[in-house]
Amino acid sequence: MAAIEIEALRKSYGRQEVVRGLSLRVEEGSVYGLVGPNGSGKTTTLSCVLGLMRPTSGSVRVLGETPNRLHRLGGRLAVVFDTAIAAPQLSARQNLRYLARLNSGRDLRDEDELMDVVGLTKLASSRAGSLSLGQRKRLAIAGALLARPELLVLDEPLSGLDTLGVRQSLRLFRALAEEGVTLLLSSHRLHEMQEVVTHAGVLLGGELRVNGPIDEVLGRARGCYRVQAEPLERAREIAQRTDGVEILASEAAHELRLRIDGDVAMRLSRALIEGGCELAALAREEESLQNVFEGLVDEHIAAEAGA
Amino acid sequence: MRGSLLIARSELYRDLRSRSTWVLIVLVGLVPLVRVLAWRLAEAPERLRRAQSGASRSAEELAGAGWAPLVESWRFGLVLGGLALLIHFARGLAGDHDTGMARLAVTRSVSRSGLVMGRALLISPYVLAMALVTGCAAWMSVTATYELGDLIVDGYTLATSPELRSELTKSVLVTLPALLCLCSFGLLVSAATRSAVAAVALSAAGFLGYDLFKEVLGGKAAYVFASYVPSIFDESAMHEMVQVALGYSDAGMSSASMNAAAILPWPEAALALGFACLLVSRKRL
Is residue B118 within 8 Å of residue A102, measured between CB atoms? Predict the structure, then answer.
């Protein structure tokens, strides 16, 4: 069963198409990481999913409801926005009480327990407006957890947090996932995201370039190498001639990005040296979201340059 | 409807716990007091002149001298209280758009129209509370220095105390719908704008601008709710009531105008709220 279902979503601002036919499913109980650089369409996609703006075309279902009827979910969905806190003039605790009034009728968590969970017990009486960005973000997370949501959507949940705050948040996300809460995280903190997500999607230029279970996504970086050699054009020719080597697009002008089958790497390095190249590095890429992302960005830039 | 009630409850909670709300209530409460003091000061030369000529006012005349400052100071309180409420309701939705609070509400348990209607539910209690605060402040300030007996000028009884009380009650009652409509107008502006600053500026400029130029409309101004709101260039029932309390008029506002003031603001308020719901339903939050 899908907590979120998006089909062929498109959103344009005037002539500029920001989201281009995006389709994805966030399965119940999963932790989905939507990653992409600034301007890739993450926030626009989330805004369409949450009913904050109308898509140009396509369909969206969140826990079975259309975006303009999310209020009918009555607290089953909670969202933590990038900047939002309820009322800067109220204390942290009063902010939770204010939100509790918006969720009245639901089985609400104890506010002291929530303050403890997000590490704000000592600041419960401080004005929300005087809290730091990280503290406000933690307060927003506490507010989101108030009504025991089934689906939690977090837009840039780790930005503005210090190292300890990031650790605490990741621990919290894992605990929520263990409780069966579905999480949709939008972030550009790839390293940290990789630690918690079970599924990931990479958005580039409004298109979902990769989407699936995290192992499958990380598999895209499998067998990828970065080669630095002089002269680079000669190295490219040799790589092209070598069986089991595929040249991938790369933004960097001083290196080649290659996908190399099995034990071909040794053969390639030998061929490069014998071919008169000065080989500075032939390094295997780590199977990380960061490398998958960078690879996709390289391909995207190369494709745009080609176009 | 449930979403509207949730918004009304949470907004009430936020307003009651906000320091600025209490500062505003105290300030609006002080306005009638200041107006009574100013009235008293303005009377000083007249009192001096009478004392010098030995023609002081009779005890009967003094007995009814409090009605004019009472109505005038209450009217003043309603002018500034109305403006404060206009700004409050104009700031509400647009301010929540600024802070992202509106997004939180619609992704939780409130429909977009609930954002407007929840606030609209607070208009009546807020207007009544404001009228009560300013009325009590005016009454306390006036009764400390004046008496509220029959209105007697040159030995003639222009109006008895119960008559004046009844006229004042009527004037206040026909002023309230216009104030309710003014707050609905604030909500409409709030729904149409994206920032609290723009909403406050637009709503205040719209209301004060209308006040300045309403004479241009001539008889058509009678169809606009803002003509019945106590304001700087006042033509409201409260303004007419001041003329009665001063003994300059014995009729007050015409019954046709009274009826218009009592009825016209309701459909106009409903229209403003309907448009506000429509705008919010199409707005990017």
Answer: no
* Ramachandran assignment for A26, one of left (phi > 0), alpha (psi -120 to 50 degrees), beta (any other): beta
Query: Contact A63/A18 with Cβ under 8 angstroms?
Result: no
Average pLDDT over residues A110-121: 90
Burial tier of B62 (Cβ tally within 10 Å: 0-12, 13-18, 19+) = middle
Tell if the CB–CB gap between B105 and A147 is shorter than 8 Å.
Answer: no
Q: Decide if A84 contacts B99 (C-beta within 8 A).
A: yes
Measured CA to CA, the distance from residue B213 to residue B221 in angstroms comes to 10
Token pair in block for residue A293? 């992302």
In chain B, the N- to C-terminal Cα span, in Å, equals: 21
Whether pLDDT at B203 is above 90: yes
How far apart are the CA of B103 and the nearest CA of chain A, in angstroms?
A: 7
pTM of the model: 0.83
Asked if A98 and A88 touch (Cβ cutoff 8 Å), the reply is no
B-chain residues within 8 Å CB-CB of A99?
Answer: 10, 104, 108
Percent of chain B with pLDDT over 90: 59
The reply to whether residue A102 touches residue B105, judged by beta carbons under 8 angstroms, is: yes
Mutate to test the interface with B, among A48, A77, A102, A131 (most CBs of B within 10 A): A102
Q: How far apart are CA A269 and CA A288, in angstroms?
A: 24
Q: b/e per residue, A210-238, with b = 16+ CB within 10 A?
A: bbeebeebbebbebbbbbbbeeeeebbeb
- Answer whether residue A111 shows pLDDT above 70: yes
pLDDT at A84: 57
**Nearest residue to B119 (alpha-carbon basis) of B132, B102, B134, B131:** B102
Contact B100 A84 (CB under 8 A): yes
- Output DSSP code: residue A128: G
The answer to whether A184 touches A154, Cβ cutoff 8 Å, is yes
Name chain B contacts of A105, Cβ cutoff 8 Å. Answer: 2
Identify from A43, A56, A71 which residue to disrupt to test chain B contact, counting B C-beta atoms within 10 A and taking the largest count. Answer: A71
Smallest CA–CA distance, residue A138 to chain B, in Å, is 15
Report d(CA A167, CA A138) in Å as an integer. Answer: 12
* Nearby residues of A93 by Cβ (< 8 Å), 6 or more positions away: A111, A115, A124, A125
Q: For residue A241, what are its two tokens?
A: 């001639």
Instruction: Find the residue in A nearest to B285 (Cα).
Output: A52
Residue A207 phi, psi (nearest 5): -115, 145
Q: How far apart are CA A263 and CA A223, in angstroms?
A: 10
Answer yes or no: are the C-beta atoms of B221 and B152 closer than 8 Å.
Answer: no
Searching chain B, which residue's CA lies closest to the CA of residue A146? B108
Specify whether the backbone of A163 is left (phi greater than 0), alpha (psi in -120 to 50) or beta.
alpha
With H, G, I as helix, E, B as strand and everything else as coil, classify residue B227: helix
Q: Which of A291, A189, A197, A208 has its CA nearest to residue A41?
A: A208
Residues of B with CB under 8 A from a CB of A: 2-3, 6-7, 9-10, 13-14, 17-20, 99-101, 103-112, 114, 284-285
Separation between Cα atoms, residue B185 and residue A234, nearest integer Å:
73
